[in-house]
Amino acid sequence: MSRFQFVDDHRDAYGMKRLCEVLDLNRSSYYKWLSGRKARASRQSEDRLLAERIREVHGESGGAYGSPRVTNGTILEP
Fold first, then answer.
1. CB 62 within 8 A of CB 53
2. pTM score, two decimals?
3. C-alpha dihedral over 55, 61, 64, 65, to 10 degrees?
């Protein structure tokens, strides 16, 4: 867990300003992290889909395909 996530999880109980002081975080950094939440969630979703596809390709090859074959376009084939 990141310090920013900790602040976000506990800010109602302790106050964001105080948590940032205790954890030695700039409040502006916290707000920047907070503004990127949607982008991070989107990226995590894309990463999950990609990981599923990689597992499919690996499984279809009988476990023979390793990272070189998977990353050299194999996963892009329909």
1. no
2. 0.57
3. -60
Strand runs (DSSP E) across 24-73, as ranges?
none
User: How many angstroms separate the CA atoms of 75 and 63, rounded?
Assistant: 14
Tokens at 44, concatenated: 């995590």
- Give per-residue pLDDT as tens, 8-60: 999 999 999 999 999 999 999 999 999 999 999 999 999 998 888 888 877 88
User: What's the pLDDT score for residue 11?
Assistant: 94
Residues in the chain: 78
Please name the residue that has the structure tokens 């975080």. 25
Question: Measuring CA to CA, how many Å separate 8 from each of 5, 23, 37?
Answer: 5, 12, 11
Helix (H, G, I), strand (E, B) or coil at 46: helix
Rg (CA), the chain: 20
